[in-house]
Amino acid sequence: MSFNLAELAAEEKNRIELDKQAAFLVWKLKQGKAGPEELTKYISSIRSADEQTWFEQCVEKYKRVMGVM
């Protein structure tokens, strides 16, 4: 089964993008290419409280998956 991401609502597209950014930032943490301040900076740039919560949940998910503490 395939999905056309272009057909998703803007809110769902944004959630996918936030998930991708969370994965990338946690990967950078693991590789030593960024510090925790980069996560804090990114979270503060998100305007919506719901989106901030979603991003933080995604970060925690990827920290568990990638073994980052």
From TrEMBL:
GO biological process, one term: DNA replication
Membrane-spanning parts: none
Pfam family, one: DUF3283
GO molecular function, one term: DNA-directed DNA polymerase activity
Source domain of life: Bacteria
InterPro entries: DUF3283, PolIII_theta_sf
Annotated protein name in UniProt: Pyridoxamine 5'-phosphate oxidase
